[in-house]
Amino acid sequence: MGRKIVFVVGPESIAEVLTNRDKVFSNKLGWGAFIEPFFSNGVMLKDFDEHLHHRRMLQQAFTRSRLESYLGPLNRVIDRNMAGWPSTGRSPFFSLAKQVTLDVANEVFAGVTLGPETEAVDRAFVAAVTGTKALVRADVPGGAYARGLRGRELLEEFFRSRIPQRRDAEGEDLLSVLCRAVGDEGEMMTDDEIIDHMIFVMMAAHETSTITMSMMAYFLGKYPHWQERAREESLELDKPFIDFDDLERLPSLDLVMKESLRMFAPVGMQVRAALRDTEIHGHYIPAGTIVGLCIFASHRMGPWWSNPDTFDPERFSEQRHEHKNHRNNWAPFGSGVHKCLGMSFGVMEIKALMHQMLLKYTWTVPPGYEVPIDYATGPTPADGLPIELRARKGAHGHHGLSPQSLERLRQQVHHSPGGETVDATAPFDLKTYVQLPVSTRDDVAHAVLQSRSSQCEWAERPVADRSAVLLRFHDMLLGHQDEIIDILQLETGKARFTAFGEMLSVVNVVRHYGERAAHYLKDTHPRGLLPGLTSVTEVRVPRGVVGVVGPWNYPLFLSIGDAVPALIAGNGVVIKADSQTALTVLWAAELLERSGLPRGLVQVVVGPGSIVGAALIDAVDYVCFTGSTRAGRIVGAQAGGRLIGCSLELGGKNPMIVCHDADVDAAVEGAIKGCFTNSGQLCLSIERIYVDRGIFDRFAAQLVEHTRRLRLGQSYGYDIDMGPLTSAEQLKTVIAQVEDAVTKGAQVRFGGRTRGDLGPLFYEPTVLTDVPREAVLYAEETFGPVVSVYPFDTEDDAIVAANSGIYGLSASVWTRDIERGQRLARRIIAGAVNVNDGYAAAIGSVEAQMGGMRDSGLGRRQGAEGILKYTQAQTIATQRLIPMPPISGLSLPANVNLLHSGVRLMRRLGLR
C-alpha cells in the first residue's frame, strides 16, 4: 500500500495504543486501509467522540434484555442447521459453522426468514468479505474486488428497502432495534448510518464466531477428555436449548472457549493509524504509519503465559487466572473503548451451538491431525477442518426423553392449570410414562382463537415463504429421525422399521407440498362470459383454522401429515391428539415451530372425542378426521350442521385378490406386509384374501410358513418385525373376534393366541380359513394382526366377494397380467387399488389422491385435493369496455336478438 507498518507486540505496548489517551491513533484510517469500501463507517471505523456517540446508540441492541430476546431464535436457527448435518462421517466443520453464522446474521440480526432472497444476501456478504482480501484492489470485472463492490451494493439495497418498515414496527431483531435507537438528545440514526452499522456488525459477528466455533470443535475433537467434561455439564442442564442463565453454568465449555480464543484469536491483528508523530515505549512512530497490534503473538508470549503453545484451558481457572497477569494479556475482542460491542452476543452464539453439538454428536479429528492455519484470511482452517461426526443416541433411556423434556412437552397441551389429567401407558409394559393434561371446551375455544390470531399474518406470506418453512421442517425431521422414531415406538409399540416408515411418509408429504404447493394454489384464469370483455381470475383462499382429529395408530402421519398441506395453504391448525400418542404430535408441533412456523399457529388439545372433539368442530372452519366409521358419522353430522367442510378417512375391511397366474412367492410376501405391518393396526391393512382355488393350498401353506417366521418382541432396534397391540381395548377386540370365528367354525392355521411371555399386549399374527359369514370378523373391521383366506372359482366371484360389505377404502390385486390386474382394479369399489402390492404403492404416491368410498369416508388426502380442500375458491370477474346486458339504449327485444346472435356465434367459433 506504500505505507509504513509497525507491529506492536506484548500487553504493555498494546495497552498504550488501545488506551490512546492523546487520541493519536485512528481506528478509521487503520482499519479503513484494509476493509474499506466494503465495510466502511461501521462503529469500529469511527474515532473518538463520534465513536462513543454511535457506540452508545448501538449498545441499546446489546443489553441483557435484548440478548435474551435474541437467544430463542438463535437456538432455533442452530437447531435447524444442525438437523441437516450428517449423522456420521467426515465433514468440513468450518463450512458447517459458517452456514450457521450466516443464517444467524439473516434471521436474528436482519429479521429475515430464510429463502431465495437470503441466499442472495449470503452470496453478497461472502463476496464483500472476500473483497477485503483481494490483492488487486481495483474494480476489474470478474475480480474479487469488483465482486466485493457488487456485494456491498446489494447489501445496501437489501437493508435500505427494509428500514422504513422497521422504524414503525416493534420487531426484536437487531435491525429493528437500531431503527428505533435514540441518542442522548433524542436523535435517531440516518438510514445510511444504520446500513453501515448493520453490514459491519454482521461481518464482525460472522467471522469471529465461525473461527471460534471451528477452533473449539478442533480442540474438543483433539482432546476427548475435555469434550466429555463439557458434555457432562450440558447433559446436567437437561434441556436441548440453553437459556441466558445457563451461559454461566457451562464452566468447562467456557474454559475451552477462552483457551481457543487465546491460541487462535479471530482478530489476531488489530489495526490503527498514527494521526501525527508519536512514540510507543520510546520507539518513534511517524504520522501516517499503520500500527498493527499483534494480539495473536501476544497471546503466546512466554513471560505472560505458561507453556503458551500448549492447549491448557485450566490456565483460565480461578486457581491460575493467567489471563489476569495484565489487563491486556487476553484481548481477543479488543480492549478499552474499542472493545467489541457484540462480544456478549458472540459468546452466547458460540456456547449455544457447542451445547447443542455436545448433546447431539461426538466427534474426533483424524489421528495426528494438526489444523493448518491460513492467516491471510484470519486464523481459518486451510483445509476446512475435517472432523468425524457421530450422532449420539438419546441420553435418557430408549425414548430419549428426560423428565424435564416430558414435562416441557406435556405443558404444550392447551389446558387450564389444575385440571384433569390422563395417564399415557407404554404398550411394551403398560407402565405410565406421562400424565397428560386434559383440555376443556374453553381450552379448545381458546386454542382456536390463538391459532386464528397467528393465521392472518401467516396467510399474508407468499406461498414460497410458507413452503420454505415447511421444507426446513422436512430437513429437521430427517435430522431428528431417531428421536421421533423412539417416541413413536414408546407410544405405539410398533416395530422400529414401521416407525421409520411412518416418519418417511410424513417427509414425503412435506416435500411434495413444499415443492408443489405454489402450482396447486396458483391463480387460474377461466374463460369469461364474454370473451375479450370479461376476464376471470380464480384464487384460492385459506379457510382459516383447520381442526385435525388424529388417531393413535399413525399419529405422526395422520395428524402432522394432514396438518402440513393445511399450513402451506395458509391456515392455522388445531390438532386433537389421542391421549395415547400425544407426545408424538407435541414433539412434531414443537419441531414445526423450531423450523420457523409462527408461534401459536399450531395448537394441540387432548381429551375425549365427545367433549374435546365436539368443541373443536364447533370452533374451526374445516375438519379433517381419521377414525372409525361410527365416529366419522358423528363428525360429519356436526360439521354439516355448521355448514363447514370436512374430510373423513374411516374404516376398512380391505380385500386382496390373488389370480391363478400370480407370482405366489411375491403375493405371499406382499400379504405378510399388507396384513401384519403395525400389528394390523392400519386402516389400509389387508384383512381378507381371496385366492384362485387352483393355487389356494399352495398359497395358504406358504402364508402360514412366512407368518410363522415373523419376529415378535419389544425392541428399539431393527431386530423385530411386529410389536404388540397399542392398547388393551384393541387386544380385547382381536381376542373376541377370533374366538367368535373359531366358535362358529373357522380354522386357525397359525396364531390365534396372546403372547404374555413377550408383554401384556402381544397377540400372534393369525391366519384363518373357513371363516363363516356369520362370524363377526367376516365383515367387520378387526384392526389387528388377523387375516382370513378364502378360495374363489371365477374372477366374477372374486369381485363380488371383494365388493361385499360396507367399506371401500383400499384393495390389492396380484397377477402377472398387468392388463388383467388393472381391469379387475376398476371393478373393485375402493378409493385405492394396488396391483402387485399390498397398499404402499398407492399411499406412497403422494401426487395421487387417497381416500375412501362408501362407508370408508369422503374427501381425499394427498395430491391436488389434499391441499385444495383446505381452501375455498374465490372468483374475481372484471368487465371491460361494455356493460353486461341488458345494454341501456337498446330495447329489450333488441337485447334478446343481440344475445341470441352472440350465443350462436360463440357456438360456431367453439368459444363455449
Q: Helical amount among residues, as a percent range?
A: 40-55%
Question: Can you identify the CATH superfamily of the largest domain?
Answer: Cytochrome P450
The N- to C-terminal Cα distance equals 76 Å
The first-level CATH class name of the largest domain: Mainly Alpha
Rough shape?
globular
Task: Please tell me how large the radius of gyration is.
Answer: 34 Å
Low-confidence stretches: none
Plain-language structure description:
It is a single chain. The protein has 912 residues and is of the alpha/beta class. It contains 32 helices and 28 strands. It has a seven-stranded mixed sheet with strand order 22-23-24-21-20-25-26, with helices on both faces. The protein has a six-stranded mixed sheet with strand order 17-16-15-18-19-27, sandwiched between helices. The mean pLDDT is 91.
List the helices and strands and how they pair.
Elements: E1 5-8, H1 11-19, E2 25-26, H2 27-35, H3 48-59, H4 64-83, E3 88-92, H5 93-109, H6 116-131, H7 144-160, H8 163-168, H9 174-180, H10 191-222, H11 224-237, H12 251-263, E4 269-274, E5 278-280, E6 283-285, E7 290-294, H13 295-298, H14 343-360, E8 361-364, E9 373-374, E10 380-381, E11 386-391, H15 403-410, E12 421-425, E13 432-437, H16 441-460, H17 463-479, H18 481-492, H19 496-521, E14 534-542, E15 545-549, H20 556-568, E16 572-577, H21 582-594, E17 602-606, H22 609-619, E18 622-626, H23 629-642, E19 645-649, E20 654-658, H24 664-676, E21 686-692, H25 696-709, H26 728-743, E22 747-750, E23 766-769, H27 776-779, E24 786-792, H28 795-802, E25 810-814, H29 818-827, E26 832-835, H30 840-844, E27 857-858, H31 865-868, E28 871-879, H32 892-909
Parallel strand pairs: 1-7, 15-16, 15-18, 16-17, 18-19, 20-21, 20-25, 21-24, 23-24, 25-26
Antiparallel strand pairs: 2-4, 3-11, 4-7, 5-6, 8-11, 9-10, 12-13, 14-28, 19-27, 22-23
